[in-house]
């Protein structure tokens, strides 16, 4: 393993170890919010633009994942239909509301919004919309990053009911390329996926105590087809991506 490869692994592992402590309380709060929604047959939406949208895909129809999660997936806010224009989209005021209205979010639902920078129009407006209709907002964001670049703008952290600070530096990348002034090794996706899966695991654990943990099985596991089919039938009416 080269020095920089080793440095990346070490940096990420150290950050995750630290977050086990610093995020213990807010993660417990996030799990409690989701648990309340689950017991009321509500939904948990996951939204992010650019690379942050991968957290929404991470929880969608996932082996070992909760079936009541709903990804908010709109091509123009992602990367595959045009990475450059997606950056313009996430900074443009007024585009998120009609996108979210498609999903039929209801009072008592939850939305997890991932935004490392935490200041772009799309995630902040998504949080505003959710709170207007009575849904709870959980943010996964970098307080250091959003504080450094806010310049008077509202931050996602200022709007959310629960804030999960990923502790990442401005710019996301964590390794210096000596003599170039460049940094490589972004970690926000790896950290975000770990945090969201840990919270979902906690919620599933709590639900399982009452015998009602709606968790997908891997399609290759025995009995998966029957179990997954029942879950899809139940949750498809409010998840356009099933």
TrEMBL record:
Q: Which residues form the SIS domain?
A: 30-209
Kindly give the SUPFAM superfamilies that the UniProt entry links to this protein.
SIS domain
Cross-referenced Pfam families: SIS_2
Superkingdom is Bacteria
- Tell me the InterPro entries matching this sequence: RpiR-like_SIS (IPR035472), SIS_dom (IPR001347), SIS_dom_sf (IPR046348), SIS_GmhA/DiaA_subfam (IPR050099)
Q: Which NCBIfam families match?
A: PRK02947.1
Return the protein name: SIS domain-containing protein
- Organism from which the protein derives: Rhizobium mesosinicum
